[in-house]
Amino acid sequence: MEGVLLVLIAVTCLFSWKGFNDQSFFTKYMFHIGAIKSGDKKRIFTSALLHGDLAHLAFNMYSLYMFAPIVIYIFGDIKFVLVYLASILMGSLLSLEFNKTNYNYTAIGASGGVVGVIYCAILLYPDMNLRLFFIPIDIPAYIFAIAYLAFSVFGIKKNIGNVGHDAHIGGAIGGILITALFDFSAIINNIKLVALMLIPIVVMFAMHKSGKLK
Fold first, then answer.
1. Which pLDDT score, from 0 to 100, does residue 1 have?
2. What is the pTM of this model?
3. Residue 59, Cβ neighbours under 10 Å: how many?
4. Number of CB atoms found within 10 A of residue 10's CB
5. How far apart are CA 182 and CA 178, in angstroms?
6. Cβ contacts of residue 62 below 8 Å, gap of 6+?
7. pLDDT 10s per residue in the chain (214 long)?
8. Which phi and psi angles does 68 have, rounded to 5°?
9. Any bridge partners for residue 139, and if so which?
10. Which of 48, 51, 68, 143 is 20 to 30 Å from the Cα of 28, by its Cα?
11. 28 contacts 79 by C-beta, under 8 angstroms
């Protein structure tokens, strides 16, 4: 495993562990709409280093461990980190937009960054197969990419679970955009996939604009 990935996972684990045991630390660095609007912008990124519990942390870090090597192999360490950070940023910005009137809204977790890395990896290798924990069969990556976005939009609409579906979609958007920046051929070579992924994203923004999303 690449050194930069080990460092990223280690830092996230240590930061999260500190948050598990120090409520004031947890509160200081989590995503909080009111605090961010008051100028505490660091929370946009530091919230990705916090997790609710060990299961939450383990799931995100395992997912990152599985997909990051693909991105690192193609793009290298620095661009991988930029994919991760850009996806966290987009996830946080979308959450900020969709919850801007709820000053008490809070969120934590690296999911936005992880999802961005996953979508970057899928654009680089769309024909690979994925196996999810709850589905004991291989799923083509391109099918997962479309279905996950559609489910996330449904998740926002129906408020399914204590999950930041908007951050996940924002992370996916970040992953797609920065992949296009680093290797536009990945977009051109998968233009049908990208077009199909855009459908739930466009629907989501249209519903948000019309006030029908939440």
1. 52
2. 0.94
3. 16
4. 11
5. 6
6. none
7. 579 999 999 999 999 999 999 999 999 999 999 999 999 999 999 999 999 999 999 999 999 999 999 999 999 999 999 999 999 999 999 999 999 989 999 999 999 999 999 999 999 999 898 876 666 778 899 999 999 999 999 988 888 767 888 999 999 999 999 999 999 999 999 999 999 999 999 999 998 888 877 6
8. -60, -40
9. 130
10. 68
11. no
Evaluate whether 198 touches 153 at the Cβ level (below 8 Å).
no
| Residue 34 one-letter amino acid | G
- The pLDDT score that the predictor gives to residue 137 is 77
Q: Token pair for residue 47?
A: 């919230």
Angle at 196 between CA 146 and CA 149, to 5 degrees: 30
Q: What is the tally of helices (H) and strands (E) in the chain?
A: 11, 4
- Amino acid letter, 140: P
Candidates 149, 144, 141; CA nearest to 197 is 149
Are residues 181 and 116 in contact, defined by beta-carbon separation less than 8 angstroms? no
Residue type (1 letter), 103: Y
CA distances from 161 to 31, 155, 156, 165 (A): 18, 8, 9, 9
DSSP notation for 16-42: HHHHHH-HHHHHHHSEEHHHHHTT-TT
Report the chain's terminal Cα–Cα distance, integer Å. 41
Give, in degrees to the nearest 5, the angle at Cα 22 between 27 and 17: 100
